[in-house]
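Troubleshooting: if your tokenizer reports a length mismatch, compare your output against this known-good record of 323 residues.
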Amino acid sequence: MSQPSSSERAGGMTAPGGVTMPPPLPGPRIELNDVRAGRLAFYGEGATAAGGGPPLLLVHSINAAGSAYEMKPLFDHYRGKRAVYALDLPGFGLSDRSERIYTPRMMTDAIHAAVREIQSRAGEGAIDIMALSLGCEFAARAATETPNAFRSVALVSPTGFDRRAARAAEKNPSPDGTRAMPWLRGLLNIPLWRRGLFAALTSRASIRFFLEKTWGAKNIDEALLDYDYLTTHQPGAENAPYCFVSGYLFSTGILKLYRNLPMPVWVAHGVRGDFVDFEELRVVKRLPNWSIEAFQTGAMPHFEIPAEFIARYEAFLNRAMAA
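Known-good structure output:
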């Protein structure tokens, strides 16, 4: 549950030594305080143009360098055209990065808090949500818990549709189950190498390597690399990623949650790189409210071909609302 008040601020995070990390996106930064998710930073404002549709909430992925910057091409496009907001999930960006166990429940509660804040500003109507990669699982969970709050759900390169997820579901089909490995989190958090290991994983060379695997190509977005390096070198940057690596943020029963989504759902995914296993999409592709589109890109088509991506997303919204 969010506390009743929120605040708007400018500026970014100041690390020891006086190095300031700027906000990932332009516009007002809104700070929320949620009982379970902690202090949350999210960005955006109402539309300056009429007729842009309901608000759109953007949710980034989870990795060592996650932040709302991962949704920047979409935020930049819609800003001024419709109300658009983007959230730094707990443990990332300018949100609370304290040492704690990060879970799907915490991430979902953060989305609920952002939705409530948006509706307090724009009215109680349903919003659109678009999420990336593992963020899709948290968006889907939020949409199954409060379906009247969401007009549509867009999932970009969603996790949970690969063979590994299917095997995890066979072992533990509960929507509340996770792949958590406490022993691995404990190992990563041993003080002797805790910071040094994360520093090695988040060198510029390492970040470039992982982005090239995401793109499936060498021509990555250099500005994203720069921000990824900056955000991974802030206090507490390793806390949420170590939970991610240890499986705490992956839900074993996510396929059941996906199937239960009652609103129009759009899936967009690429065909290059390391994130192309969507075998279990067969579970949902025949459902009448699901639309699935492949792009000749890596896992972040909104960075590679933003105009085509946005045009096809808008076409989905038009079809869904007409139906």
